[in-house]
Design goal:
2 domains; four-stranded mixed β-sheet
Length: 402
Amino acid sequence: MVSTAEALAGWAHDYEPTADDRELAQRSLVDTMAVTLAARRDPVARIVTGLSEAARWAAIGHVLDFDDLHLESTTHISVVCVPATLAAGGDARAYLAGAGVMARLGVALGWQHYASGWHATCTAGAPAAAVAAAVSWGLSPAQTATAIALAIPAAGGVQRAFGTSAKSLQVGFAADAGLRAARLAAAGATADPSALDDWLRLVGGDPARVDLTGPAVPGGLAIKIFPCCYAAQRPISAVRDQLPEPVDATRVSSIKVTTPESSVHPLIHHRPGTGLEGKFSLEYAVAAALLDPRPGFASFTDEAVTRPEAQQLAGLVESTLTPGGDWLLAGEVDISIGLDDGTTHHVTLALPPGSPDRPPSAQDMAGKIADCGADLPELLDGLDWPRARALLRQLLSARGPA
């Protein structure tokens, strides 16, 4: 009987991208490079100087929490698979093979795995990075299955890290573990591919849910418009885009939010005190949407989060979480904003901009890249995989950011 690792390895080895797959890969490359280079001055860039390329690039790429997301698996696919592919010298096909494995493993792990507190980007990411490296280096299906199995001991990460630098660091660990596993498999290491099936069951997944049909990344990828957790994108968009006119934040007397409990599962910081914690706070997301014309990088600094007016608004938020849901876009968010004159503004939203069924426009993408750095539109114009690798090596060297 063929193990899940062998089936995934065979799929990855034989996979040929379609035109739509290649378009997704190019957008993912540009988006991931933009958010990675935007973070090159972040303290994490200094902290990771002693790590491998894959680990450094992935950790820096994730620290702003501005990278894309596969909603069905609740995994940040590109921030693992782009750095792993670039560090291994791969191309779009290698990225898509790794991304496809990550999406399918994430779905097999299921919502309950994520809801239990696992960081699925890391658990699904380590085996996926092994596949991206294996395809980059031309490993055989048997070697690729071995690499997947060798990545399993490092397939870990927990949500308690959210709001600290540990979140981005453990993403870096996952990317590094995948390359290490592929390198060992190429050198002749052995492992039982059935380890993946056993591991899936141990952490609450189901190997039977791995589906090898469909495009490289079934369901597509969600692009973030704001630099914070994806669970905060919908509340921010609801307040910004659905109100008929801007609300004077000084007149707000009450804020009531009703949403399925799964849709805010990662938002664990109810009274954030730092910029990183603010990225994982429903209360602060609503406050920032009311205070800032466009919640961007400046909205998620320590100083912005601790603004008295932001703290006051966040303290007004009353949340009603309806039971159920099995993903971050379950149902819709419903927000009522009461003013001091007794009037109430009521907004609802199901799909935020950037979600796969409401994809970002070319203008959205251009605006995001420009927000990430004044020099990036020119640097990333016509970007390909070899040039992306050279840029990261130039601007994020082992000695620290250039």
